[in-house]
Amino acid sequence: MIVFPFFLFPLISAGTWLGMLLAMLIVWITEGSPHYASMDPGQSIAYISDIGAQGLKPLFIAGCVVTTIFLDLAFVSERWLRHSGRLERNTTKAEKVLSVLAIIFAIAGTAGLILLSIFDTLRHPHLHDGFLLLFIAGYIISAIFLCAEYQRLGIHFRNRRILRISFWLKLSFILVEICLAVVFGVLSYDGHTQQAAVFEWIVALIFTFWVLSFFVDLLPAAHTKRSGAGKTDGAPALEMGSGSGGAHVVNSHGYAHPNGNGYTHTTTTTTTNGNSYTNGQANGYTTNGYSSGNGLLTNTAARAYGSGQVDGYADGYPNGGYRDSGMAGHKPVSSAQNF
After folding, report:
1. Which of 26, 185, 238, 243 could be bridged to 263 by S-S, CB 3.0 to 4.6 A?
2. Residues 163, 153: contact at Cβ < 8 Å?
3. Exposed, middle or buried by CB within 10 Å (0-12, 13-18, 19+), for 90?
4. Across all residues in the chain, what is the average pLDDT?
């Protein structure tokens, strides 16, 4: 069975984003670090948006679109893989709500990045700044919701080391990006364009690592199929019966014999005469199949009737019917009616 490589989504997104940034920076440097019309008079370091508003605008728009589309696909894939059980399932409604909110704010960040690349800083400076704020705020808030979801998942799935790694990666991104974004905003507001431009490039490059954190999230799905990834501890499935007898075991003749009042975890073996017996656990008592007398014997709590015989049924006795154990009111049955 071919498993779709969902982990490629963040790799494509991060590769496109990093490649676009490096291409724009290299082109600007190789052209002699020109002073663009959108730059302040004393500014010598270009903002990303200054370079993207010039001849490389098509590259800027295409890079932003591809980056965000594949990043959103990574968000949606993570949600679907948890829902289908190929990643650790969400165990509470709150986790699902956090995941959906993370996707919504990521889409808002996507819209902000695409729109700021279209409405460049040279021709639409105010719109550009507004969309820049939407981009930064959208992805930071999305990261906060996603980090909260992973923190809750890590509590439930304590043996999943990958969840702890992803949680700390996302938390580190939140803390670092918030600090850098605040510094960038303060410097820009105070007119320190040189320093602000440097911090913008740093924020953009760190965003690459945020995108790559989804590779860590989606990689385990490459080794799982549709079922089984969401189990918490791999405990064996238990079988629950119904009625007053609780859990039941069925012998080779189709008779359901109550073993107790709860769950059973049983192993059935067939003897040479065609009968089967069961060794298992029921409510803390052990139930051990057939006795040497070829009758069904339970030692969970031996119930004595009449002469003190243990409750049991005969199977294949010459006279057919029940063992002579003093059980009043029981009628013999023919051999054809044996269980």
Report:
1. 238
2. yes
3. buried
4. 73
